[in-house]
């Protein structure tokens, strides 16, 4: 297969013309093979089918959309739709897609490596024009070697070096903002809940939030204590609750908690209530500013992430690729906004 044809196939959905060029036959012959026309020589059929497989060509089979070369469908693959953050992000993406006349097909991966591999390979998201994907487990090298030619945009902190357009979150700034707020309010022993037991196991989102935590400490000339980085199995309410009970038993001097997300923060607030501690005793800041943050007791100070902006940027990047943009990968970054509520003395 000519090198320029391979490069073209990797950068946009493969067309009949690409297959015909690579196979050295006419577009009509390719069409006859695709439509299983009986009057095609067996050796010719085999040759064209081999090129179709090599270029990952996928014809659309829907009348008008076949003529347009578009289905109007975009796949959205997120780790956990029961998570408030991802649920609200999915809602924002559905609304943004609807405004563009696009229908989203939603797939939940559970952060499972095999499910993420299926999504990256194009299954079960066949017959879609594009993919918005929030991977958590798939190695970057595998993402970079993805064979499926459907344009894709990654969303979240994961995916640096994959070669795909990305909408990411400035998690270093989030950590810095949260801990700076706590320090400026007079707290001096700030714990971080949401780390991994081993530094080598930190995914990008954890590593970046820890980096932001340490950056704020350095600015305030507060000594970093690695014992205040508290690991959890997952970023769920239960783990935030259990981690806070263990943390306060080991370190009763802690007067503030930076939780890696709001779910951990809600668990922390529940644990502190059980221990008879108020926000004046131990302040708490989370990340995401999910709707529940306004209704927790006390209400939760959090770093708000604009899900609507993330959705708009992701679909804008995808639309550019579908329109033929063939440039290098692009990175758009969304910053957070501190929303002060009762849990940090607001």
Helix-strand pattern? HHHHHEHEHEHEEHEHEHEHEEHEE
Q: What percent of residues adopt helix (DSSP H or I)?
A: 40-55%
Structural class: alpha/beta
Instruction: State the name of the first-level CATH class of the largest domain.
Output: Alpha Beta
Oligomer: single chain
Give the end-to-end Cα distance, rounded to a whole number of Å. Answer: 64 Å
Query: Roughly how many Å is the radius of gyration?
Result: 24 Å
Strand content: 15-25%
Query: Architecture of the largest domain in CATH?
Result: 3-Layer(aba) Sandwich
CATH topology heading of the largest domain: Rossmann fold
Number of helices: 13
The CATH superfamily of the largest domain is: Response regulator
Instruction: Give the total of beta strands.
Output: 12
Brief write-up:
Helices cover 43% and strands 16% of the residues. With 346 residues, it is an alpha/beta fold.
Characterization of this structure:
It is a single chain. The protein is of the alpha/beta class. It has three domains: 3-59, 434 Repressor (Amino-terminal Domain), CATH 1.10.260.40; 70-169 and 307-335, Rossmann fold (3-Layer(aba) Sandwich); 171-305 and 338-344, Rossmann fold (3-Layer(aba) Sandwich), CATH 3.40.50. The chain is 43% helix and 16% strand. The strands form two sheets. The chain has a six-stranded parallel beta sheet, sandwiched between helices. It has a six-stranded mixed beta sheet with strand order 7-6-8-9-10-12, sandwiched between helices. Helix 6 (84-99) links the parallel strand 1 (73-78) and strand 2. Helix 2 (16-23) crosses helix 4 (42-55), helix 9 packs parallel to helix 10 and helix 11 crosses helix 12 (262-274). The chain is elongated, with a radius of gyration of 24 Å. Mean pLDDT is 88; it is low at 1-11 and 60-68.
């Amino acid at each position: 297969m000519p090198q320029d044809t391979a490069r073209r196939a990797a950068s946009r959905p493969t067309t009949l013309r690409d297959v015909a060029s690579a196979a050295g036959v006419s577009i009509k012959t390719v069409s006859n093979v695709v439509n299983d026309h009986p009057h095609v020589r067996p050796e010719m059929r085999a040759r064209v089918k081999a090129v179709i497989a090599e270029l990952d060509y996928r014809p659309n089979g829907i009348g008008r959309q076949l003529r347009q070369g578009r289905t109007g469908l975009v796949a959205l693959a997120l780790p956990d739709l029961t998570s408030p953050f991802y649920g609200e992000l999915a809602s924002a993406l559905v609304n943004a897609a609807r405004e563009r006349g696009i229908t989203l097909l939603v797939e939940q991966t559970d952060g499972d490596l095999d499910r993420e591999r299926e999504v990256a390979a194009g299954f079960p998201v066949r017959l879609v024009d594009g993919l918005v994907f929030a991977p958590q487990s798939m190695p970057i090298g595998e993402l970079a070697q993805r064979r499926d030619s459907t344009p894709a945009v990654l969303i979240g902190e994961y995916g640096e070096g994959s070669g795909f357009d990305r909408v990411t979150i400035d998690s270093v700034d989030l950590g810095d903002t949260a801990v700076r707020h706590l320090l400026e309010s007079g707290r001096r022993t700030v714990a971080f809940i949401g780390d991994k037991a081993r530094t080598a196991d930190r995914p990008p989102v954890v590593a970046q939030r820890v980096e932001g935590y340490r950056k704020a400490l350095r600015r305030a000339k507060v000594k970093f204590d690695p014992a205040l980085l508290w690991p959890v199995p997952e970023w769920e309410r239960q783990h935030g609750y259990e981690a806070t009970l263990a943390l306060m038993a080991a370190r009763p001097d802690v007067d503030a908690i930076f939780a890696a997300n709001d779910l951990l923060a809600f668990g922390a607030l529940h644990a502190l209530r059980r221990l008879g501690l108020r926000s004046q005793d131990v302040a708490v800041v989370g990340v995401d500013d999910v709707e529940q943050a306004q209704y927790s007791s006390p209400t939760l100070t959090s770093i708000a992430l604009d899900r609507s902006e993330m959705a708009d940027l992701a679909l804008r990047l995808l639309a550019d690729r579908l329109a033929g943009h063939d440039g290098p990968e692009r990175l758009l970054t969304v910053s957070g906004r501190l929303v002060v509520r009762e849990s940090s003395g607001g």
